[in-house]
Fold these 3 entries.
Entry 1:
Amino acid sequence: MKKIAGYWTAVLLVIIYLWVSNEVARGNLIFDVGPIAAVPLLETCWHYAILLLLTLFFPFIASFDKRIDYFSKWPEFFKAALPVALLFILWDVWFTKIGVWGFNADYFSGITLLGLPWEEWAFFFVIPFSCLFIYESVRYFYPGISFGKYDRPITLGLAILFLTIGFAKWSALYTATTFLLSGFFCLYHFLFMPRAMAWRGTFYLSYLLSWIPFLLINGSLTGSFTSQPVVVYNPAEYLGIRVGTIPLDDSVYSFLLLFSVTTLYEFYLRKRKV
């Protein structure tokens, strides 16, 4: 436990130093992205809320399927999602405040808390809930998925890749924070969680499958289907590469969010079985 505490203390110090050593130019958010395909129905202040409802609808209904039995695991999901959501919300509040990203008032209901739309708060529960449904579906239909001897090299390889990009892009606050935290989290798995090999393969596959709804939902948030995006970014603070309208950084941000929730989710599932 001392080694783990020391590890995360060191990670926290790196992130604090990153944040205090970088200054963000305010008022530099990009609202003109250019839609891929305009959908007039989404030109509404309920855009963000509609996306969340669409994202939630099928996983919620299908949760009651007795084969997958996701419904019975809701308590473990909420116990896992809550602390992760709180950390991501604090991160979100800070980055919104200093101008790393922001929200277009034309596309959310107008109700905010700590500078974030209520829809953004809900995002950190709806997205993990829906993606863990994908995870449980993969576990049911493809039981026992494991990368075997390749699991640890893949995890270490991801850690090295993320950390390399994070340190190389130190001055881009979104990129550096997201890639460094993702890299340190993968390295934590490699160093301290050998038993996670039992489920990491399932997570990696479910994350890849989550790219299908990710491209639609995140694409809609970043301006793929509307005249302006819901979420706007400071171009100096991200990698500068977009998949359609989606900053590549968002995919790593999603990876970190889902990997963190899944790690705690599996922890609570094991506790329930004991």
Note: The CA atoms of residues 131 and 210 lie 6 Å apart.
Entry 2:
Amino acid sequence: MISLSSVSNGALSCNITKSCTGTKVLGISDLTNAHAEIFSFNNYPYSICCKDTLGYPIDNQDTGKYISFLKLSSKTDAHVEQSSSNDYNFNAHISSPFYEIKCNYAQSCNGYDTCLVSISGATDAHISVCDYYPINICCTTQCASIETNCIDGLDNDCDGLKDCADSDCDGSIAGTARAQDTNLPIESVDVSTKKDLTVMKSSTTNQQGVYSINQINCGNYTLTTSHTDYAPSFKSAQVLPNQQLTADFSLVLGTSCEADCTFIADNIVHACKPVKLVVAVCG
């Protein structure tokens, strides 16, 4: 019995099909003893079709993190050879813009994400479904254990998160809050990190006026302070990957209740009551 599917154990999944819903990386004439054609030709009924199970795009050209897994003798009606051979001029590629793909020629694809096809020899070869011929083309995603680069636009560890969205790239913020007139530390100051109106993380100063916000995604934020006895303050902050940002505050006496009855820390409308018919304070 011949199966059209190639077993997949990881993020990369490839199979031989008549109806490709992923990325076609090669066309083949039959399931066994087949000839090949480059992906852009449509003379043959079968395609080697690949996709990423996490939803990242797979490409069939020499762009991004690509690898040549076969060489063809011509654009269609072709014999094939291993990519390390030098007799043929037309390459079949598989690539991803988000991570590296590694392909090897092996008797078994155990330990790899997927098997593409099998070939009858190192050169001047025919193509078949996996395990039909002695040489399988086995491919896998090359994933690091952590996000190794936080600015390359790639999901280096294949966890579905890239760059600053991955907690491996988190930074931290720390600093002090002091009274502007006395330079004394202020306890119980709420320090919040915001993106637009959304509070991402917050911390409260201790008796020494010190606060710290740990494990926060790298990126740009607005820092705000709130205290019942002091006017709110703002800072723009850029948290760099795996680094600590120091942001100190010098606060002046005032109120954190704004004219629209919101607190600077939360932008929630609070109940207000008039005081001497002049000033509204939040309660």
Note: DSSP finds no helices and 21 strands in the chain.
Entry 3:
Amino acid sequence: MYKSNNNRHSAKPPPLVSIITVCFNSELYLEQTIQSVLGQTYEHIEYIVIDGGSTDNTINIIKKYEARISKWLSEPDENMYDAINKGMALVTGDYWAVLNSDDTYLTDTVQTVADFFNRHPDIKVFTGAERMIDENNKYIYTRYPPKFSVNSMIRLRTNGIISHPATFLSREVMRTVGKFNCAYQVIADYDFLIRVGLRYHIAHSRRPLLNFRLHSGQLSMDYSQVAAREKDRQAIVSYYSRKNCVNMNLVWWDWIRINLANPHYFCQRQLTKIRRLLGGRIDAGKSSCL
């Protein structure tokens, strides 16, 4: 077998990974988020921060680190997804992801992702597990992604099958799938991930990539948005259901498999429904089931 001695000249350069963080009045946790990106063991990172015109200390926090932030801007936006779209327009990396302004990466997250894509260049989307933490960074439980099924995602009416902030995508996905649909005020990521799943295989790992913070101020815990969320969810489900034929027996098997793999997540979802009925009177920090 012929072996070249010029590997060092033909070696592929490390991929550039773009991270987008969008924020608005995010002074409480933003600095931890920024530090988790800047403290990565992987060096080839483009960090983009999009602020929606904050009036608290958010801008000062960004300016504190602006020498190490690749690009940032602050201006009013339509909603969080409009801000993400602005960040996507600035991406020049080979791969990209969105990190919420209250979440954090593990120190080797981007290295793990870059290594995976180097080993599997044909795969365009990769998602991992997420460690759920509370307001004080206390570990609660780990949520693991099951094998992805876009039909189950549609029929089970949830994007909880995979974690958007723990998902990394090739820039090709951005070109083929397009931007987030800002018409969906609260769950545009649900629509976006369905579009991704309809076009691409989504590889998954049980390795945690993210610390996902559960706290009363996050958008998904805003019970005033319940009606809007359900209206958008129904519109999304109706649209894609008309385009896809689904074996409901397989879908419900997926539902069983997902919840057996993530008992904490199942309990949290049921408790969230109860909290909504009670107007949020159960303390989320005391709602662990196991």
Note: The chain has one domain: 13-283.
